[in-house]
Amino acid sequence: HVQLVESGGESVQAGGSLRLSCAFSGSPLSMYCMGWFRQPPGKEREGVAAIEVDRDGAATYANSAAGRFTISKDNANNTMYLQMSSLKSEDTALYYCLTGSFAYWGQGTQVTVS
């Protein structure tokens, strides 16, 4: 069955960068559009970025992420990434990767920006 495992979250200073990874197994990643959500402390989950299934991998971003975050997929290695730069304290959250259908979610990786 499909499994998603995030990694790469850690504590960083404001202005810093992080790259989150999402290891995908159980089915070819190339079949899925994918995305990242996050849940800040005490708040609802919110969408961050999404990437299409097709070869061009067109991406969309939440306003809060546009210009600072980049989502990408490596279908050959069944891994999705979220490159985050110019991090702000408001980016502090538990970050989840998921399939575009919302059927499959990872367990989350914590990002803390101070």
Q: Supply Rg.
A: 13 Å
User: Please, how many helices?
Assistant: 0
- What are the secondary-structure elements, in order, as H or E? EEEEEEEEEE
Mean pLDDT: 93
The main pleated sheet reads as: 6 strands, mixed
Helix content: under 10%
**What does the overall shape look like?**
globular
Strand content: over 45%
Class per helix and strand makeup: mainly beta
Spatial strand order of the main sheet: 2-10-9-4-5-6
**Uncertain segments:** none
- Distance N to C terminus: 37 Å
Would you report the number of β strands?
10
Walkthrough of the structure:
This protein is an all-beta fold and 114 residues long. Helix content is 0%, strand content 47%. It has strands at 3-7, 11-12, 18-25, 34-39, 46-51, 59-61, 69-74, 79-84, 93-99, 109-113. The strands form 2 sheets. It has a 6-stranded mixed β-sheet with strand order 2-10-9-4-5-6, with no helix packed on it. The chain has a 4-stranded antiparallel β-sheet with strand order 1-3-8-7, with no helix packed on it. The chain is globular, with a radius of gyration of 13 Å. The N and C termini lie far apart (37 Å).
